[in-house]
Amino acid sequence: MIKDSKDHLKKTNETYIKHLIVACKIGISMIIGGFQAIFHALIPGILTKSASDKIKKLYDIVSDRSKY
Length: 68
What we know:
It contains 3 helices and no strands. By secondary structure, it is mostly helical. The protein has one domain (2-65).
């Protein structure tokens, strides 16, 4: 597990702390997007693009990180 973690950090070109911060930001953003989607499901007239915009933004962030 430690070797896999080191390999992953090397692949993303991040220190442990940098990875922790980035991964937490992505996770929190995913949670917020999930709530936005649920609120939109309950009331279709609100947050009509919020969740999908968040998904697109997260995709861009994650795909840029995988280029390293």
